[in-house]
Amino acid sequence: MEAVSDTDVQFRMAKAVNWGEDTSCSALLDTSRHLGSLRSFLQQVLQGLQQMRSTSEAMKMFPFVGQFLGRLCWNPCVIADERSQRLLLRCLSCLYSAGPLNAVERKANMWIKVVSLMTEEVIKSCDGSSNTARCLNGNIHTMATACVALVTCPQMSPLIGALLKHSMLCGSSCLNQEFIKEISEALISKRLVLEDEAIVNLWCYSPTCLEGAAVSLLESVLSDRETMTQSLDKHVNDSLLQIRFRNNVRLYVCVCVCVCRNVLTEIDENLAVRALIQVFTACFLQRLTGQKPQDRLPLRAFFPNVTPCLLTPLLTAPSEVPREAWLDHLSWIRSLLQRVTENEEAGGDVRAYQAVFEAWFLLVQCGYWVDTAAELLVLAAPENADSLLWLLTFFHHPTNRGHQRSQQTAVAREAWTHLRMLFLTRPPPPRHLSAVKELLSSSLSANLVLHLFLNFTVFSHGPVSIITEITDKVLTEAAVKRNALWILASIRCRLNSAATRDDRVHSRLRTLQDTLLQT
């Protein structure tokens, strides 16, 4: 408030006193002439009030503000100007007090009470007839417009929730876009708290807001270094997107189709995005499983574009299958996926390519089975490796342009052979270490080889000191280390949901993460 001079304060106060509630032409003309500068002054007042810790502190620092705001509240010209009204109401909200001691505090509290009355009116309209709801649409639009500047005030949450519920029930578009935008931005920035039902209503009313929440989660994960080493599933569960969907197919499909699939299509080798999609799906399925059977929709409703036979084997978590049956289960998954790819390899039409993409996207969502395959490859016998290597290759290279799938499968087998010798032989043979480094340098197969390499570091039984030494020699580039941390984060999430906990494996994984971060 240092920019506001005493002269300016005296001038504004004198104007407010002269205007009063006068509706004469001269008074209205003078008020209109000064509205622009008044808005600038109110903005400065607001900035000063927002820095105060209490109403008493605000009144002590700015003794003029109570009388000034109080007089403006009854000025018809100021209240009729939308921008001036917003600024005035925001200043009043800063002065809200549980125990009002003066006129302006009572005015602010009285306005809050009006909000409660409006909330009750909207709620009643939701329970009334459709004709009543339609009659109130004009009032709803007016209320929403008045709320735009105040969406972050805690006292506004019930009214905002009621407005969103009304608009969903009456099926009308009576809420202006600025109101919707302000709510969405306030939720994402955690400056507004709404009940789950209100958030679901917002997202159903405006899928753009749902997409914004999904993109915000993507950006926060990609930009947060700690997410790679801390619990990624906790990060996802704490996000807005993991509210209870309550069987809302439209919301889940919108997140997956409108956001995740588009991102994967553009950057299909981004391991961070894949890890996030995998964890999001796992968290969602856990919540879905927690519902009562009679309240639960069939899985097919949430994955409408996928070949039905793929749903049961892929959406069944590894923790729900006995460990001794993992190999057979993965062979089953491989055979089903291979059947989908055969039409594409035979030169099928667009539908064949689409089917392959849908199958691959489901595999990305259920990436815990790919991680399980990579784990089994650490100690797998050669005769059992083919189906596991094929699955890993399809995960990293779903397309078959130029018959690359068979080429990449050969690379995967070569890498697996070198890794077996490197991690299961003492001392580690130098030539196999060099071969693995060379394969990692290939832009086409780097993530595939890295995926295999990291599972050997986590699940092989060699001493941690030797594993750390190998890791330091093989993973030397910063970009590769970052990718490695995302793969380890994905492995960690799967282990967190395992039926039993292996402390040795968890300790080794933690050591690897720390080593990569330090270097």
Automatic annotation (TrEMBL):
One of its GO terms (cellular component) is Fanconi anaemia nuclear complex. One of its GO terms (biological process) is interstrand cross-link repair. It holds the Pfam family Fanconi_C. It comes from the Eukaryota. This is Fanconi anemia group C protein-like. It comes from Sinocyclocheilus rhinocerous.
